[in-house]
Amino acid sequence: MKSLKQGLLIAAIALSQPTWSCTEDGVEGFVPENNLKISVNAKRFGGITEEEFNDVITKVENIYAPLVAQEGGKLIIDRAWEDGTVNAYAQRSGTNWMVNMFGGLARHETITVDGMALVVCHEIGHHIGGAPKKASYYSSSWASNEGQSDYFANLKCLRRTFLNDDNISIVSKMEVPEALSAACGKAFASEEDKAICIRGGMAGDSVAKLFASLRSQSTPAKFDTPDSRVVNTTDDAHPATQCRLDTYFQGSLCEVSFNENVTTSSEVSGTCHGSLGHQQGLRPNCWFKPRLDN
Q1: N or C: which end of the chain has fewer CB within 10 A?
Q2: Is 76 contained in some domain?
Q3: Domains of the chain: total
Q4: Cβ neighbours of 196 (radius 10 Å)
C-alpha cells in the first residue's frame, strides 16, 4: 500500500509540473544539447536581426495562437533575444502552451528568416503536430515527436505562414538547388505553390546547415542524397542531419492541404501516407515506421 501511495504521489507531482520538449526534461531542444553561446554583442557574420527575429515570431504567433486556442491551449512565445543559447524549446504548464526562442540561435550564421520561421513552427508542432507522439513513462506524452514536429513545420505551418507573401519574387532571389526546384515543379502545377514548396525546402536547408555546424560535420545534407536508413520502429529522438532535411523536403512536397488537420489519434490524417496511395511527401523511413493500425 505504501508503494502504491508513493507511486500515486510521484505521478501527481509529475503531472503538476511544467513539462518540456524537445525532451521531457528539457535537456535537448530544437537541436541537441550544446554549450555554444552567441552573445548579443558578438560580431555578426550572419544570422538575422532582432527586428527580423521579432517579426517572424509575431507572424507565426498571429496565425497559430487562435488554432492553439481551439485545441484548449494558450500559446505563449518567450522572445529571449538577449539570451545567447543556440536552441529553442516547447513547454507546457496547464493550459499555457509555451515556446521559448533564444537570440543565440537567431544570431547563428546559418539561420535565415525562413529558417527561424521553421524553428518556431517546429516548436508549435510539438503542441499540435499530431501523431506520432513521444513515448513517456505511462504511454505517450503531450508532445509530437521530433520527426513529426519537423514534418508538421513544412507540411502545415510554413505553408500558412508563407501563404500571403510574394513567394515567386522571394524565391527568385534565392540560390535554389536544382533537385529542390525540379521536385517542387513536379509536385505542384501552379508557380505560387511551387514557390512555397521551394521556400519550405530552403528553410530546411538553413537549419540543416545549423545541425551540421553544431555537429562539426564536413559532409553537407543535400536534397539529392536522401538518408537510406530504414528504422524498425519509429524513432522519437532527433534524426540525423540528412534525415531531418529529408523530412522538411517531403513535408514541402506533400500535396495534402494545410487545411486538412493532423490528429493525435492517427498518423494518417492530414498527411501524405502510403496507405492513401501517395508516392511523395511521405515521412522518411530513416525515422518513421508506419503503423499497421492506422
Answers
A1: N
A2: yes
A3: 1
A4: 26
* Average pLDDT by stretches of 10, the chain with 294 residues: 39 40 57 92 84 98 98 98 97 97 97 98 98 78 96 98 98 98 98 98 98 96 98 97 98 98 96 96 98 74
pLDDT of residue 141: 84
In a domain, 293, yes or no: no
DSSP 88: E
CB 294 within 8 A of CB 275: yes
Q: Is the residue at 6 inside a domain?
A: no
Cell numbers given for 277: 496511395
Distances (CA, A) of 84 to 40, 41, 144, 178: 7, 10, 26, 35
| β-pairing verdict for 88-93 and 96-102 | antiparallel
CA atoms of 125 and 132, how far apart (whole Å): 11
The half-sphere exposure of 137 on its side-chain side, counting CA atoms within 13 A, is 8
Residue 229, domain extent: 17-276
Is the residue at 56 inside a domain? Answer: yes
Interatomic CA distance for residues 144 and 127, integer angstroms: 7
